[in-house]
Amino acid sequence: MSMKPLSDCHVLVTPTSYGRTDPSLKSRLEAAVSRVTYNLTGKPYSSAQLQALLPEVDGYIAGLDEIDRAAIASGSHLRVIARYGVGTNNVDLAAAAQHGVVVTNTPGANAASVAELTIGLMLNMLRPIAAAADETRQGGWPRLKGSSLAGKSVGIVGLGAIGKEVARRLAGFDCALLAYDVVADTAFAAQLGVALVDLPELLAQADIVTFHVPVLPQTRDMINGELLARMKAGSYLINTSRGELVDEAALLAALTSGHLAGAALDAFQKEPPGIDNPLLSLPQLIPTPHMGAHTDGATDAMGRMALADCLAVLGGAAPAYRVS
Fold first, then answer.
1. Active site residue 230
2. Is residue 266 within 8 Å of residue 288, measured between CB atoms?
3. Is the dihedral angle over the CA atoms 310, 315, 316, 318 positive or is it negative?
4. How far does CA 160 lie from the centroid of its chain?
5. Strand partners, 180
């Protein structure tokens, strides 16, 4: 593999929000290397598109592209894949290791932004704000009922960086906080007054359950019929993590039967889900277009972290956030 100097390197940048609100991210990268190629399509790249681009690339700041074995194998000079985001489920880590490609990510960069969206979705499920605004705009003056967040129990599945930010924000809403995590931070939970419980207990007690776990073999389709049946009747579900967590047919059944009062999804199994997805026809579902990290604060933080690690590896140094 070529070990050319940093100043002679070619870097591919595929996230379309990279540098959008902080132009210095682009200028710093362009000053450090000889060539930068940006994604002008507005969409993540497929494996076939990457195979056409990666043969001449040394460093790759990557979005939600299809970074499979074939794509990685095509990068004969590729030394680093710096994921712009925390998830690496779209990267073939075994292939990267086999080809000597370092993979990094940006843990915690979007935690506050995703937590803020989670709280917004929670409030919009309990209070039909969007429906009320639409009807009022059309000349109506609806008397729509809602539920108060105060006095409710909120269950947080996954008390990592995002789950903790959700808990911090909910601490002022006078609601009971429950959390489940395989490796829970007991000191944090005690400080915030979060009750650490097992998953069945959380599902049985919580009025609202919000999921903040990565996609792993044991979490893929974890929101299935069995889990949904364990949830409290009339409760609400939020997923601002990954669409792969949700068995969408099971969720559809739970919503149409009335077992769940509502749900909010910022991610789907297929993205975009397509207008034929039956979940989109349900008024008790709030769908958003995987926008949790789409804020200036999150994109700037992801850009800074991905840029630093990409340049570190190309310059022969250790990255701060190595995944593999």
1. no
2. yes
3. negative
4. 13
5. 157
Given 30, 35, 226, 271, which residue is catalytic?
Answer: 271
- Rounded to two decimals, the pTM is 0.85
| Annotated catalytic residue within 220, 259, 290, 322 | 290
Rounded to whole angstroms, the Cα distance separating 157 from 143 reads: 34
Which domains occur in the chain, in start order?
A: 6-109+296-314 (3.40.50.720), 111-287 (3.40.50.720)
Where are any strands of DSSP class E within 110-217? Answer: 153-157, 176-180, 195-196, 208-211
Measured CA to CA, the distance from residue 164 to residue 152 in angstroms comes to 18
One-letter amino acid identity for 281?
A: S
Catalytic, 259? Answer: no
For this structure, is 248 an active site residue?
Answer: no
Residue 277: count other Cβ atoms within 10 Å of its Cβ. Answer: 16
10, 242, 244, 248: the active-site residue: 242
pLDDT level of residue 89 (50, 70, 90 thresholds): confident
Q: pLDDT of 141-171, one tens digit each?
A: 999 999 999 999 999 999 999 999 999 999 9
